[in-house]
Amino acid sequence: MIKRDELDKILNKFNSLEKELTSAVNDKEKYVSISKEYAEIKPLAEQINIYLSLLKEHEDLNAVLDGNDNDLIEIAKSEIGNLKLNLQSSEESLKQLLIPKDPLDQKDVILEIRAGTGGDEAALFANELLRMYQRYAEDQNWKVDYLSVSDSEKGGMKEVIAKISGQSVYSKLKFESGVHRVQRVPETESQGRVHTSAASVVVLPEAEDVDIQIDEKDIRVDVFRSSGAGGQHVNTTDSAVRITHLPSGIVVQQQDEKSQHKNKAKAMLVLKTRLYDHERKKQEDDIADKRKSQIGSGDRSERIRTYNFPQGRVTDHRINLTLYKLEQILNSSGLEEVISNLIIADQGN
Question: Is pTM beyond 0.85 here?
Answer without folding.
Answer: no
